[in-house]
């Protein structure tokens, strides 16, 4: 009996978990080479901006209105049709469930109509593999995943094989950026606007609290810093002061990310006995130049290589979902058409259940 031969995977990825409707086509060769054939992102920023943040109902509706156009454009830009695909990968969570259902249902419809395998992808796993879209980055590696909804350190051994070392006990780093930006009167999304305002500012002018100083683990906390910055913002009158507070807040967030990553690197290096010292940062906050700079310095000090995805793959996109799908497909990991949309879906379920950093609640651990 002959074993099934490995074949190249050409996967349509769909991403609708927050405020971007995205579709992409990614090809993965038998020897693991990755080619992004197209990556289309339709941002909903303009629809949410008047409300100062993402409105779930508006998001879900906007996804419904654009998902088929975005998917068709991704195929057209790749020069392919549905018949050329080996599979469909859609984000199945975590995220805003109304939006997740739109992309997942669309993916199921394509899979059913074309007889293609479906892969229900964890959005966080997409971020975890995102650096592999543009760099030759083998497993395993240590990952700092920093986005609007998540802030965690993970050992990534491959798809379906991530282990959490630590996570935030309150806000995510992106959330802290967004909320501080709001108190400074900046438009949504706050992270990039705050980075722009901070340019040329004095990062030492406003001292901000350092969280969880006595602890030796890899947990994060941003709520104290966020509240302190908000209080300081209230008393400011000049643009120079606002610029300095933005620079101070950005530096404080970057410092905490660097401190915890340093701890995780020490831990990981011991576990790995000095081998595979690769550090990766991914997620929307990885787009921040100061954050990248601090992490790069720490990695160099610890003897780790440093990889960050290009900016277009830091924030939400479907190329990362397609790649996670292709890697899963190559391992035979597919899902049934009854795969549920999961608003909460920790990447490392064992760690999340054993040590919930959010109060688990009725619906289980969030992240
Ligand atoms: O990964 P992402 O697009 O969506 C989630 O999965 O959450 O991340 C969005 C987050 C937002 O909080 C946004 O403000 C933040 O990433 N972000 C930034 C920058 N660009 C995006 N934060 C700081 N500096 C930036 N340049
Ligand atoms: Zn994301």
> Which small compounds were modeled alongside the protein?
5'-O-[(R)-(carboxyoxy)(hydroxy)phosphoryl]adenosine, zinc ion
How many strands in all?
10
| Overall SS class | alpha/beta
Q: What is the number of helices?
A: 12
Cα(first) to Cα(last) distance is 44 Å
Q: Give the strand content.
A: 15-25%
Pattern of helices and strands: EEEHHEHEHEEEHHHHEHEHHH
- The percent of residues in helical segments reads 40-55%
Mean pLDDT across the residues is 92
The CATH superfamily of the largest domain is ATPase, nucleotide binding domain
* CATH fold topology of the largest domain: Nucleotidyltransferase, domain 5
Rg, alpha carbons: 20 Å
Largest sheet composition? 5 strands, mixed
Reported CATH architecture of the largest domain: 2-Layer Sandwich
> Which stretches of 5+ consecutive residues score pLDDT under 50?
359-367
Provide the spatial order of strands within the biggest beta sheet: 3-2-1-4-5
**General form:** globular
CATH class of the largest domain: Alpha Beta
Number of discrete domains = 2
Q: What are the key terms here?
A:
single chain, 367 residues, alpha/beta, Nucleotidyltransferase, domain 5, 2 domains, five-stranded mixed sheet, 12 helices, 17% strand, binds 5'-O-[(R)-(carboxyoxy)(hydroxy)phosphoryl]adenosine, binds zinc ion
Tell me what you see in this structure:
- The chain has 367 residues and is of the alpha/beta class.
- The protein folds into 2 domains: 9-134 and 313-354, 2-Layer Sandwich (Nucleotidyltransferase, domain 5); 141-308, ATPase, nucleotide binding domain (Nucleotidyltransferase, domain 5, 2-Layer Sandwich), CATH 3.30.420.
- The protein is 42% helix and 17% strand.
- The protein contains 12 helices and 10 strands.
- The protein has a 5-stranded mixed beta sheet with strand order 3-2-1-4-5, sandwiched between helices. A 5-stranded mixed beta sheet has the order 8-7-6-9-10, with helices on both faces.
- α2 (56-78) runs parallel beside α3 (97-114) and α7 (223-234) runs antiparallel to α8.
- The protein is globular, with a radius of gyration of 20 Å.
- The model is unreliable at 359-367 (pLDDT under 50).
- The structure holds 5'-O-[(R)-(carboxyoxy)(hydroxy)phosphoryl]adenosine (KG4) and zinc ion.
């Amino acid at each position: 009996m002959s074993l099934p031969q490995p074949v190249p995977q050409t996967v349509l990825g769909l991403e609708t978990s927050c405020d971007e409707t995205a579709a992409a086509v990614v090809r993965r060769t038998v020897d693991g080479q990755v080619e992004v054939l197209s990556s289309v992102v339709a941002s909903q920023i303009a629809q949410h901006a008047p409300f100062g943040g993402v409105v779930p109902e508006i998001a879900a509706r906007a996804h419904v209105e654009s998902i088929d156009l975005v998917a068709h454009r991704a195929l057209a830009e790749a020069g392919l049709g549905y018949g050329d695909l080996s599979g469909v990968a859609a984000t199945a969570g975590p995220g805003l469930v109304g939006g997740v259902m739109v992309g997942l249902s669309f993916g199921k419809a394509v899979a059913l109509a074309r007889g293609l395998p479906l892969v229900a992808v964890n959005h966080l796993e997409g971020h975890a593999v995102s650096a592999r879209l543009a760099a030759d980055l083998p497993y395993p590696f240590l990952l700092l995943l920093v986005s609007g909804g998540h802030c965690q350190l993970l050992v990534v051994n491959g798809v379906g094989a991530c282990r959490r070392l630590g996570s935030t006990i309150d806000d995510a780093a992106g959330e802290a950026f967004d909320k501080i930006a709001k108190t400074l009167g900046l438009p949504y999304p706050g992270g990039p606007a705050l980075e722009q305002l901070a340019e040329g500012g004095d990062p030492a002018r406003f001292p901000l609290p350092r969280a969880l100083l006595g602890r030796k683990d890899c947990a994060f906390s941003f709520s104290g810093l966020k509240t302190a910055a908000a209080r300081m913002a209230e008393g400011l009158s000049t643009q120079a002061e606002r610029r300095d507070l933005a620079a101070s807040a950005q530096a404080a967030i970057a410092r905490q990310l660097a401190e915890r990553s340093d701890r995780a690197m020490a831990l990981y290096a011991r576990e790995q006995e000095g081998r595979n010292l690769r550090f990766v940062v991914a997620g929307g906050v990885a787009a921040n130049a100061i954050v990248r700079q601090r992490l790069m310095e720490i990695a160099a000090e610890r003897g780790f290589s440093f990889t960050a995805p290009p900016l277009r793959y830091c924030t939400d996109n479907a190329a990362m979902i397609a790649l996670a799908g292709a890697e899963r497909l190559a391992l035979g990991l597919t899902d049934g058409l009854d795969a549920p949309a999961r608003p909460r879906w920790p990447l490392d379920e064992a760690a999340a259940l054993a040590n919930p950093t959010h109060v688990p609640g009725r619906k289980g651990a969030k992240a």
